Amino acid sequence: MVLSRRNNPIILILIFIISLFITLSLYNIVLSSSSSSKRDNKAGVETKPDQTLKQWTKLNNDDLQRFNQTLKRILVPRVVDTPSHANVKNFIVNYLNNLEWTVEQDEFETNTPMGRKKFTNIVGTLNPQACKRIVLACHYDSKYFPDFDFLGATDSAVPCTMILELLRKLDPKLKQHKNQNDDITLQVIMFDGEEAFQRWTNDDSLYGSRHLAARLNSLSSRSNLCPRNVETELDRIQVLILLDLIGEASPRFCSYYSKTQKMFDHLSRIERKLNRFKLLETNRLSGTNYFSRCPFSTSEIEDDHIPFQKLGVNILHIISTPFPLNWHLEGDDGRNLHHPTINNLMKIFQIFILEELKLI
Ligand SMILES: *[C@@H]1O[C@H](CO)[C@@H](O)[C@H](O)[C@H]1NC(C)=O
Ligand SMILES: [Zn+2]
């Protein structure tokens, strides 16, 4: 076809851009399918998901409804030492009790810029006898703002809901693991008082995690099944996996510590596998990219892991960087959550925990 000179140049440019786009997309499809099949063949990896993988990445309507119900119970103002905070605390404690987990409440009082306050960390353990623990953690308090009711959906109602729903979804498998009396188990820590009452300082922040890390470090190990190098309750933590600022679209998580690089790579590998088998919800041709290689300069973020990290605990910090768009704003009230992303992360974490505990 020959284009006459009278054609509108804008249309010509548009046609050129569109055809360039189509060419590039086609090229991309060919490239990605050929490279993934090459990878499959070379590594001898299966080209179809097995039944186990399919089963544990399936979220049915019941699961999604339960997630919403649990989130609704937590997504309320829950400023430390208020009645609505106590409701959320009781909800979480009951939830863990109903799953037959052993629950401890680490209560303490301390001074804050807003006076003396009472805090409660919640610690749930699947099998208290097992020496070592893989800890899943979040903070359940919400930040106090004088001028509006802050709900903290990503901060951290969603991360806490994800943990609770993960335990429920995996419950049959976890009960099976508990009965095997392995030397490792799962523990959940829901921290209180992560947020500063005023401006974030060393004294005004991380109230719960500072208290609990110090306390566990001062208690000698209560398990008689531990090897000799495990002296304190803190030593029993194999890894602290802290979830924070999760729930908006397209998060990116970075690896901050070389000691947990392998675990981070495990998450990244699961994500790639689920993308390859089209088990994640995404519009992107290349799939999701949550667990990525981040710039070398990525610096550590102050959060509940810090008091533990300072005492030598292995840390996996799963926090969106950059922070969600509505971080510490009124908009972090649930309206801006992206449920496909939350579902995808649930699937990745479900497989991750099952594989780390060698349950599949
Ligand atoms: C859960 O809540 C979200 C946001 O309100 C909604 O879009 C979704 O349809 C709900 N899911 C179910 C299964 O009710
Ligand atoms: Zn916050």
Write a structural description.
This protein is an alpha/beta fold and 360 residues long. Helices cover 41% and strands 14% of the residues. The chain contains ten helices and six strands; from the N terminus they run H-H-H-H-E-E-E-H-H-E-H-E-H-H-E-H. The protein has a six-stranded mixed beta sheet with strand order 1-2-4-3-5-6, with helices on both faces. Strand 1 and strand 2 form a beta hairpin. The longest helix is centred in the first third of the chain and has 35 residues. Bound molecules: 2-acetamido-2-deoxy-beta-D-glucopyranose and zinc ion (ZN). Zinc ion binds next to loops.
The total count of helices amounts to 10
The overall pLDDT average reads 90
**How large is the share of residues in beta strands?**
5-15%
Bound molecules: 2-acetamido-2-deoxy-beta-D-glucopyranose, zinc ion
β-strand number: 6
Report how far apart the termini are: 59 Å
In which range does the helix fraction lie?
40-55%
Q: What is the string of helix and strand elements?
A: HHHHEEEHHEHEHHEH
Task: List segments where confidence is low: pLDDT < 50 over at least 5 consecutive residues.
Answer: 1-18, 29-42
Concise overview:
The chain crosses the membrane at residues 12-31. The protein is built from 10 helices and 6 strands, in the order ααααβββααβαβααβα.
Main traits of this protein?
360 residues, alpha/beta, 6-stranded mixed beta sheet, disordered N terminus, binds 2-acetamido-2-deoxy-beta-D-glucopyranose, binds zinc ion, Peptidase_M28, transmembrane, transferase
